[in-house]
Amino acid sequence: xxxxxxxxxxxxxxxxxxxxxxxxxxxxxxxxxxxxxxxxxxxxxxxxxxxxxxxxxxxxxxxxxxxxxxxxxxxxxxxxxxxxxxxxxxxxxxxxxxxxxxxxxxxxxxxxxxxxxxxxxxxxxxxxxxxxxxxxxxxxxxxxxxxxxxxxxxxxxxxxxxxxxxxxxxxxxxxxxxxxxxxxxxxxxxxxxxxxxxxxxxxxxxxxxxxxxxxxxxxxxxxxxxxxxxxxxxxxxxxxxxxxxxxxxxxxxxxxxxxxxxxxxxxxxxxxxxxxxxxxxxxxxxxxxxxxxxxxxxxxxxxxxxxxxxxxxxxxxxxxxxxxxxxxxxxxxxxxxxxxxxxxxxxxxxxxxxxxxxxxxxxxxxxxxxxxxxxxxxxxxxxxxxxxxxxxxxxxxxxxxxxxxxxxxxxxxxxxxxxxxxxxxxxxxxxxxxxxxxxxxxxxxxxxxxxxxxxxxxxxxxxxxxxxxxxxxxxxxxxxxxxxxxxxxxxxxxxxxxxxxxxxxxxxxxxxxxxxxxxxxxxxxxxxxxxxxxxxxxxxxxxxxxxxxxxxxxxxxxxxxxxxxxxxxxxxxxxxxxxxxxxxxxxxxxxxxxxxxxxxxxxxxxxxxxxxxxxxxxxxxxxxxxxxxxxxxxxxxx
Length: 638
Known about the structure:
The chain is α+β, with helices and mostly antiparallel strands. The protein has 2 domains: 6-59 and 98-183, no CATH class; 205-636, Rossmann fold, CATH 3.40.50.200.
């Protein structure tokens, strides 16, 4: 993502408008999600610097997303499968005239001339260029310039407030509290090191793990406890289906640059495990300059994409696959970038990409993508698998809520969105936990859930393993080799109706030995994951050699492949895609569709973590799918 400097805020104005103080009427709206590490607050921002302010207006009917999503997703609903159209989504959620008037009148009454305001084409944002002095008085904020030892600079305020009567009409205001915590060094930019994109506190993290061992292939079901192959997965989950409607079906795999596949790796894998697919490539969907780069090679650059495509292609053969490659080689991308690409309305008024979290395009940096932002360039695929995430505590609740609502809208349109649940057990990226204030801290002891996987409108996928010495006919356990399946409870999102019985049963019948100081044990918040699949010892061709790979990065595309096959069967039968699957998965009718996982845990934060047990648990969710049974249930629905 782009590193902000102060160059875009140093424009001077001749006159600084003095506003009458209204701070006594303001209430806190947002505060910074986590304090900067290694950044020094060097000075106050100059009062006459100009800030490009954007006021994100509250959308209509957001309180009805779960209701409307259930109407097309719950198996007992009479309108199951009758998904909404894109225009329906725009019309239902557009901000109201009352909201537009309330925010406009507040700004004008505060001394900002109406002719300075600009309403976005879709009525979702009000924009105005204002001086620091104006903004600080308007929202009771204090902007500072922060400097990193590398010399990079950016601005931020710790918190901001709005009038009580306006608060309900505003989602978020930018630029304000959001802060870019990572800084790429010049040599990292040149090399496009994964370290820039995946290892620091607030960064997107993703990518499987490896134990570094090269393997000699011995394809046999007798060795699935030591190396997972396509045949192991077919045996574990009863996958026996050949697609019939590939021309109607769509399956998307998300990759964030610089992660990229190598065709030679795909062919090496196919030659050993799926010979008819040698030469098969994904259909590249370039989002904001996304490119399947080949200059930087090795596990850190090719591991994720090679893994995703080799197993997705192998399990869904001959289904074509869309490679959603997001971000250029200079700036990269985040989750909002791919959401913009599949939903133009989100791009223009619902999203509001944040420069501290998302790629902002056109990219003015040398070598950056200088084309227009990728807005609505493709229809949402029926299934999207994403093996990336970030700590929930690294974003503000407003940012998370706005993005989560978009996942709900994709479900309303008929798309299944799957995210891997993380590889650090109950801890956040890199094993970092939360401090008492709920922000990531190296000394923290509170469990740190991931995002977007905690959004109740995505399907969260955890990881299991064939236990050492066991076979594919024996029960799996939670993954405890190299990685620990991410799981726990959100600190942001309320408990969805579809999950209420399962979560309540777990907390009542298997109460964890932890206090409210360690996790949100209120029983009123979203639990994750929803389901799991194997995530240990995958045989993957990476950079010209076979290696063993571990992680929920393995399990997400496997579940995505199974849902793609289910969609194929429905399409062949003249029906539509399943869309959001969670209400069905948790329903009584689907209870026999899973292998319950009752052993293993997901340690982290100095604890053993949660323990897998009967029924749903925050380690492996409902368990692993029995594809044959799952297919029969979904085929029986309208």
